[in-house]
Amino acid sequence: MIGYLVIRLSQSLLVLMIMSFVIYSLIGLMPGDPIDLMISSDPYMTSEDAAHLRSLYGLDLPIYERYWNWLMSALGGDFGYSRLYNQPVAQVLVPALMNSVQLLVVALVLSISVAVPAGVLAAYRQRSVFDYSVNLFAFAGISIPQFWLGLMLIMLFAVLLGWLPAGGIAPEGAPLGEQLRYLLLPAITLTMTSIGSHARYIRSAMLEVLRQDYIRTARAKGAGASRVIWRHALRNALIPFVTVLALDFGFLFSGALIVETIFAWPGMGKLIFDAIMGNDYNLALLSLMLATALVLTGNLLADLAYAWLDPRIKLGSRG
Fold it and tell me: Rounded to 10 degrees, what is the CA torsion of 234, 240, 241, 244?
């Protein structure tokens, strides 16, 4: 296990190094730089002043030299300053990351809590009314756009009923009930749009597992329906579902842009979008690097979950 973790962490560091250069190069190829923005905002700045500033900040160097200087500073813990927020990049990222964790963990827990039992029961009662209802709800959840669902929830619960705030985040130090009021609508939006796909994956995996020989053997030995489903079948059906969760893990932290924008939730998705649109190179680079690290972390956790769900899977084995 330790050797496997060392190999995987080494591979992850190599991927991060390669992605850091790719992302840095792509951002460097974007039109305009901070000096161009300063020129557009200061009509008295001459071309000599701009050339001096580019030389001062190293923007006139080749891309590989600029990347090397950034990498050495990053390894020393200096990720630069954010142009938009006028703060160190790390100080801007940490609150946004915590907000995304708060929102997305709640959405994932709610989605799994509903999707897993619904998918299991739909597979067990195949072609029943309950199965058709779950399929209908799943296809509706997959088909409904996030922005439309979010706007409809705002119209209903914030505008018409006035029960919940339309957006934003609870003030710092607010009681737990007030924090939940601000969290509820964006969490429900993410949950409703992910339950459908999760339920479909669980249902299809359960249908395949329930046809296996060992399930028939367990039933022939007198095992009850509850034991067969929840102990024998579900554990094996969760293996492909873990792969889906691993993909969602990195995507949700960086890709919940639509929901975060609609509800003005200051999370990672909105931060990455604002950094790219505002030419905040340092903030955009570190945000995308963090999203890459989260995807790699999700894949590692999925591999560990495979070995836990199925003891026959040996980590690091080639057989």
Answer: 180
165 with 260: CB under 8 angstroms?
no
Q: Is residue 116 located within the same domain as residue 14?
A: no
Whether residue 248 sits in one domain with residue 158: yes
C-alpha distances (whole Å) from 165 to each of 4, 153, 154, 156 are 47, 11, 8, 11
34 and 174 in a single domain? The answer is no
Place of tokens 């119209």: 155
Of 46, 75, 104, the position where a domain reaches its end is 75
Task: Specify the number of domains making up the chain.
Answer: 2
Q: pLDDT higher for 87 or 56? A: 87
CA distance 178 to 183: 9
In a domain, 84, yes or no: no
Give the C-alpha separation, 116 to 63, whole Å: 48
What is the extent of the structural domain holding 41?
A: 2-75
CA 258/CA 254 separation, integer angstroms: 11
Mean pLDDT of 215-230: 81
The CB density around residue 28, as the number of other CB atoms within 10 Å, is 14
In DSSP terms, 88 is beta-bridged to 81
- 110 vs 54, 80, 114, 176, 190, CA distance in Å? 50, 37, 6, 18, 10
Query: In this structure, is residue 61 part of a structural domain?
Result: yes
**Domain contains 176:** yes
Q: Tell me the per-residue pLDDT of 17-37, one tens digit each, with 9 for 90 and over.
A: 888 888 888 877 766 666 666
Residues 147 and 263 sit within 8 Å (Cβ to Cβ): no
